[in-house]
Design a protein that fits this description.
The chain is mainly alpha-helical. It has helices at 7-16, 19-36, 46-56, 61-95, 111-137. The mean pLDDT is 89.
Length: 138
């Protein structure tokens, strides 16, 4: 989630909106943050949790820990899968007599990698949805 305003300024702007409009803005911002939670985030999700905690006006250590555990497990599986696909591509290149220190397979451009990545992402979707639902129910 990219932002052009610091969080304290966003909070101040929401407070200026009045009760009803401020509550709608908080609900919309909360929904955006919860929906943005994903194990394949490029960046650490800490900023999203900071916004969620600001909106809910409370700390969420248990839910954050559960998400971080999911996030780290996903990252580990992705790295292992990347290494397996890379090794397979390297072997295929060797069979074609293409090898050496300068030869690096393009894992991200490979169909097998994309299928593996899609499968891993789907396998974590159920756990992620449980976390999202817990956040929505707060």
């Amino acid at each position: 989630m990219e932002s052009f305003l610091p969080l304290h300024e966003i909070a101040r702007e929401i407070e200026r909106m009045g009760e009803e409009t401020g509550q709608r803005m908080k609900a919309a911002l909360l929904s955006l943050c919860v929906d943005a939670l994903s194990p394949d985030l490029e960046k650490d999700p800490e900023r999203l949790f900071t916004v969620i905690e600001l909106i809910k006006n409370r700390d969420l250590p248990d839910i954050k820990k559960k998400f971080q555990t999911l996030f780290m497990a996903y990252r580990e599986e992705i790295e292992k899968a990347r290494q397996r696909v890379s090794l397979g591509l390297t072997e295929a290149l060797k069979e074609e007599k293409i090898y050496g220190d300068a030869v690096l397979p393009n894992v991200e451009g490979n169909d097998r990698w994309r299928q593996t990545l899609d499968g891993l992402t789907r396998s974590y979707e159920g756990s992620l949805e449980e976390i999202r639902e817990a956040l929505r129910k707060l």
